[in-house]
């Protein structure tokens, strides 16, 4: 009588021993790359633009301007004539400071022009108008 | 006969280690916000303190763009004034700038105009390769 042997089935288990290694690796990545937002700002709807470039984050000071013309720097409400002094202080802290505008798209340009004049007087001349990428 | 007591082996249970790791992972995954800022850059001229000399530009080297309060764009270049729709602005400026690389583009926006009209126009100017851009208002 022929002896038919059953062929051994290959094992089909996923090795789970290294699962925690993978998890820790991902965890470390997210821990290192996480930036907890320091300032809240004020809600604005930014305009859209196509030819935008990346703004270096470590030197940027953000000025929020909403459609009502309220100006906020570092979560403090600032009036137009005071922008100069706030920005002069920022320039003293960081010589390479650059100003980043988060302005609502429906803000009237007159306010922006006044702020830009304040920046010129404060000698903070590098300016970025933040925008969303137009698709 | 004395029986030997079995020694209890001390150890940290590692079976739940991956659970802990995944829990932390999910927390950081959900709280991470990649704050990448993008925008249009420009360098402002320094405020005049009376010591700078005023430079008079020739009319051939100056293109004036005027945005009114409704976002309508009027362009004046070489004595010729005409209205330009926003989608043709880039092409028009590109032609001007390639012909004359010294051309200064003056972007004048009405005080009552919306900020987005200025950004749209500035976007087109930068896309067209204009390097000398001046922002002003009335």
CATH topology of the domain at 48-133 in chain A, by name, is: Nucleotidyltransferase, domain 5
Number of helices of chain B: 3
Provide the gyration radius of chain B in Å.
31 Å
SSE succession of chain B: HEEEEHEHE
Shape of chain B: rod-shaped
> How many strands, what sense, and barrel or not for the largest sheet of chain B?
5 strands, mixed
CATH architecture of the domain at 48-133 in chain A: 2-Layer Sandwich
Overall average residue pLDDT of chain A: 84
Helix content of chain B: 25-40%
For this structure, what is the CATH class of the domain at 57-110 in chain B?
A: Alpha Beta
CATH architecture of the domain at 57-110 in chain B: 2-Layer Sandwich
Radius of gyration of chain A: 27 Å
Oligomer: heterodimer
Count of helix runs of chain A: 3
Mean pLDDT of chain B: 82
* Strand tally of chain B: 6
Walkthrough of the structure:
- The complex is a heterodimer of chains A (135) and B (138).
- Chain A has 135 residues and is α/β, with parallel strands linked by helices.
- Chain A has helices spanning 19-33, 80-93, 109-121; strands at 48-49, 53-54, 60-65, 71-73, 76-78, 98-103, 126-130, 132-133.
- In chain A, the strands form 2 sheets. In chain A, strands 5-4-3-6-7 form a 5-stranded mixed β-sheet, with helices on one face. In chain A, strands 1-8 form a two-stranded parallel ribbon.
- In chain A, strand 3 and strand 4 (71-73) form a beta hairpin.
- Chain B has 138 residues and is of the alpha/beta class.
- Chain B has a domain at 57-110: Nucleotidyltransferase, domain 5.
- In chain B, strands 4-3-2-5-6 form a 5-stranded mixed β-sheet, covered by helices on one side.
- The longest helix of chain B has 15 residues, at 17-31.
- Chain B is rod-shaped.
- Chain B starts with 16 loop residues before the first helix and ends with a strand.
- The mean pLDDT of chain B is 82.
- Chains A and B meet through helix 1, strand 1, strand 2, strand 6 and helix 3 of A and helix 1, strand 1, helix 3 and strand 6 of B.
- Strand 7 (126-130) of chain A pairs antiparallel with strand 1 (38-43) of chain B, so a sheet runs across the interface.
């Amino acid at each position: 009588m022929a002896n038919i042997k059953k062929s051994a089935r290959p094992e089909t288990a996923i090795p789970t021993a290294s699962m925690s290694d993978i998890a820790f690796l991902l965890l470390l990545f997210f821990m290192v790359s996480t930036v907890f937002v320091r300032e809240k700002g004020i809600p604005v709807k930014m305009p859209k633009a196509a030819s935008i470039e990346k703004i270096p984050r470590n030197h940027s000071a953000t000025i929020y301007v909403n459609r009502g013309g309220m100006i906020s720097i570092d979560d403090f409400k600032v009036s137009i004539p005071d922008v100069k002094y706030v920005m002069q202080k920022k320039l003293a802290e960081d010589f390479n400071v650059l100003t980043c505008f988060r302005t609502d798209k429906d803000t009237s340009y007159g306010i922006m022009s006044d702020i830009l004049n304040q920046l010129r007087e404060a000698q903070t001349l590098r300016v970025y108008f933040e925008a969303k990428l137009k698709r | 006969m004395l029986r030997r007591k079995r020694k209890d082996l001390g150890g940290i249970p590692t079976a739940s280690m991956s659970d802990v790791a995944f829990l932390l992972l999910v927390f950081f995954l959900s709280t991470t916000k990649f704050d990448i800022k993008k925008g249009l850059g420009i360098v402002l001229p320094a405020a005049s303190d009376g010591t700078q000399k005023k430079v008079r530009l020739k009319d051939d080297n100056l293109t004036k763009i005027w945005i009114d309060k409704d976002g309508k764009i009027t362009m004046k270049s070489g004595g010729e004034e005409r209205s330009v729709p926003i989608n043709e602005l880039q092409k028009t400026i590109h032609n001007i700038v390639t012909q004359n690389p010294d051309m200064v583009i003056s972007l004048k926006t009405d005080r009552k105009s919306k900020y987005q009209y200025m950004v749209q126009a500035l976007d087109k100017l930068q896309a067209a390769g204009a390097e000398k851009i001046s922002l002003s208002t009335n």
